[in-house]
Each structure stands twice: as structure tokens, then as C-alpha cells.
Amino acid sequence: MASRTELRPVVRLRSTAGTGFTYVTRKNRRNDPERLTLRKFDPVARRHVEFREQR
To answer: In this structure, what CATH number is given to the domain that contains residue 48?
Structure first.
């Protein structure tokens, strides 16, 4: 049986606006095996932009 850290790893989401701002979250590897992409607020750019998972 897989442990919790293997199934839900901690991932960093980096802003695509080029500001270098990151969010830290967890993802379910079973439901989202590919890289995660979320639209979130970037306080440096002061607008909503796409954040992509970095490895």
C-alpha cells in the first residue's frame, strides 16, 4: 500500500507571468498524473494568471 506522501506529493506552482511567484500545494497522483495547471492570483503581477507545476 502506498503511503500518503507517495500518493499526494507536494508540488510547486510557478507563475507563467514571469514574476517568479510560486504557490505550494498537494495533488493526487492517481487523478492527475500529468502536470497540474491552475489559474490563480499573482500578487506581483496583480492579476489572475496560469500557474504550472514545476519539477
So the answer is: 2.20.28.120
- The pLDDT tens digits of the residues spanning 19-38 come to 999 999 999 999 999 999 99
Cβ atoms of residues 52 and 35 within 8 Å: yes
User: CA 14, 7, 19 angle in degrees (round to 5)?
Assistant: 5
pLDDT of residue 15: 98
- The domain tally of the chain equals 1
Domain that holds residue 18: 4-54
